[in-house]
Design brief:
The chain is of the alpha+beta class and 325 residues long. Helices cover 37% and strands 18% of the residues.
Length: 325
């Protein structure tokens, strides 16, 4: 997993939530006014501590805190779902979700909370589980819901992460089959077929998405290469063409050992990476490197320069994978 994943799981334990109804109103007002408590949602707070919230991981925690708060204040049957359940299961997401998703068998009356996305319906017992005290959809149902409702890239990020955690593709397919006429199901099935457990970051999924969208054959992931500096792996590529693609994140690069230590000297890392890159190309392979700054069209143009001309001439863009901005 790369340090610059758009939204990767992990991080320190979150502070406990505080219900306003369980504390004297004057205490709540004073704590909120002084900034020692911050509001999570109406009637629910948490202690701010000594650090300010920054970064994607903090946005992830905020959504989970809102989900916990919603669960504690709802009295009727409910199940947290979609991206909220994905976060609870520790799955990667492409962007930080703004809303808490919940499935309920009734319509809410009164003023709606703009941070809550409510889905009307029932969730079978087989599609429910409990994670960290929260009632959530199972991993398979969660991925199915995300594939139906998110953009193809966002859905692919979730599916890749779930397969990497050991979820069976067939289990997700079975969930999709139980609601064959639900909106987004045909596209969800297609994206599920493209999911790959070998993606170790959301950005690697992004890179694979771009080449799949061009209509190129499905690349292998975590391609092993024996070099003069040892056995290493490339993010993805096509061995018949001797072509490898790599995404350069903030922490690079891994071998089949323990990889780089988080505090390793950046200068040494760069020197080691240069040696590694040269060692791979010495085997007769072409290595193309990309970063988050690369425009999607630029990625495609660079890759196609090294694809056999007859393959390029026969390419048909994948209509299920829209272009990225």
């Amino acid at each position: 997993m790369h340090d610059d994943d758009p939204l990767a799981p992990g991080g320190p334990r979150r502070p406990a939530l505080l219900l306003a109804a369980e504390h004297p109103p004057q205490l709540v007002r004073q704590a909120a006014s002084s900034g020692s408590w911050e509001r999570v949602r109406r009637g629910v707070y948490r202690e701010t501590g000594t650090t300010r919230r920054i970064g994607p991981a903090d946005e992830r925690d905020l959504v989970l805190d809102r989900a916990t708060a919603l669960h504690r204040t709802l009295r009727a049957d409910h199940v947290l779902s979609h991206t909220t359940a994905a976060l609870a299961h520790g799955l990667r997401l492409w962007t930080a979700p703004r809303d808490v998703h919940v499935v309920q068998p009734y319509r809410r009356s009164g003023r709606a909370d703009p941070t809550v996305a409510r889905h009307l319906g029932l969730v079978d017992a087989s599609d429910r589980c409990v994670v960290g005290g929260l009632p959530v959809t199972t991993p398979a149902r969660t991925v199915a819901d995300c594939l139906r409702t998110l953009s193809p890239l966002e859905g692919l990020v979730v599916a890749d992460a779930a397969l990497a955690r050991g979820l069976a593709r067939e289990d997700v397919a079975a969930c999709l089959a139980r609601q064959p006429r639900a909106a987004g199901t045909p596209r969800a099935r297609h994206v599920l077929r493209l999911a790959d457990a070998g993606a170790e970051s959301a950005w690697e999924t992004w890179l694979r998405y771009l080449v799949l969208r061009l209509g190129l054959p499905r690349p292998s992931t975590q391609v092993p290469v024996r070099t003069s500096v040892g056995r290493v792996r490339a993010d993805l590529g096509w061995e018949p063409w001797r072509l490898l693609l790599e995404f350069d994140g903030l922490v690079k690069y891994r071998t089949t050992g323990d990889g780089l230590a988080p505090r390793e000297d950046p200068g040494r890392v760069l020197v080691a990476e240069k040696r590694r890159h040269e060692a791979i190309e010495a085997t007769g392979r072409r290595v193309l490197r990309f970063t988050a700054r690369d425009a999607p069209d630029t990625v495609g143009e660079r890759v196609l320069r090294w694809v056999p001309p007859d393959v390029v001439a026969s390419l048909r863009p994948d209509r299920h994978l829209p272009p990225l901005r």
